[in-house]
Amino acid sequence: xxxxxxxxxxxxxxxxxxxxxxxxxxxxxxxxxxxxxxxxxxxxxxxxxxxxxxxxxxxxxxxxxxxxxxxxxxxxxxxxxxxxxxxxxxxxxxxxxxxxxxxxxxxxxxxxxxxxxxxxxxxxxxxxxxxxxxxxxxxxxxxxxxxxxxxxxxxxxxxxxxxxxxxxxxxxxxxxxxxxxxxxxxxxxxxxxxxxxxxxxxxxxxxxxxxxxxxxxxxxxxxxxxxxxxxxxxxxxxxxxxxxxxxxxxxxxxxxxxx
Length: 259
Known about the structure:
Elements: H1 2-36, E1 38-39, H2 48-59, H3 62-69, H4 85-91, H5 93-103, H6 106-110, E2 114-115, E3 122-128, E4 131-134, E5 137-140, E6 151-154, E7 161-167, E8 179-187, E9 193-196, E10 209-219, H7 236-242, E11 245-256
Parallel strand pairs: 1-2, 5-11
Antiparallel strand pairs: 3-4, 3-6, 7-8, 7-10, 8-9, 10-11
């Protein structure tokens, strides 16, 4: 009996020590991830608490539950195309894009682990025959549909904007540089120009799916640089610094090699 009691006490001590070590590792990991990930471009949104409150209110609504069980609940699908930036943020579009960009490691591999919250809604659509193929948050677009520059639409307000299309997977030999496929600057002016002309996606055979990212950036002023022939302009941080750009929108798709 005494041996059993001593064994039980020893087991409790061992498990207590393991739990302590595990909690220390968790706290250390949390501090490391917080220090490595920095939101340097835009502040975090404040609508999360409001969305959670609305969610819990709807969850406790008995009438909504009855309609849902009877298959009579009608949900209005928001028109994302016609939404203003304010309505889009209230809808949670900023958080949705940010979460999916995290999921696909866009910030890690393209922005050197520097995060920003896309505060502006912008539309990217490829035109194929009479159809428009939208770029969302990681959807797959056939390579044959991307041969021409996409249609870009967003609310210009009173500023100048640039649109950058880049791939974190395209520059195999120099992994620290961004493979820039398109760099359109001075949008909203008569001097709109391409620093890098549109270069269609070109994933290598046998390498699986490549990520192609559109970044909408607000300019500090008009860009007067001459057009560059090289696709690689350095890292995305270098590009943001060189042209004084502030990323405010994000959209991306995946594509793979096809015959």
